[in-house]
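A quick aside before the break. I want you to see a complete sequence-to-structure record at least once, exactly as it would be stored in a machine-readable document. Don't worry about memorizing anything.
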Amino acid sequence: MNSTYEKIYEVVKRIPYGSVATYGQVATIAGNPRWSRVVGYALHVNPDPDNIPCFRVVNRFGEPSKAFAFGGMNMQIQMLEAEGIVIKNGRVDLEKYQWRG
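That is the input. The structure line, written in tokens, reads:
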């Protein structure tokens, strides 16, 4: 597996239950703030969705992915809501739910 993707997956595994992170945040923690798109690519081919909670990654506005690879945006919203994360007007309140990792 691509070592960049491995770094990204390790960061995503650390996002706690009931929290989200942004693509840019994951990119920065993984080692390069310019990897936001790479984070998206990596999550789209997530080899282990049971252990790499890619549904907890949202865009910089708190919006779920319109191209969520594991059932579409509605599935991502359902998974976030199942963890108690409120989606209002299509967005997660980052002030309240963003992981501070």
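Two observations worth writing down. Residues 13 and 53 are 6 Å apart (CA to CA). Strands lie at 21-22, 57-58, 87-88, 91-92. We'll return to this after the break.
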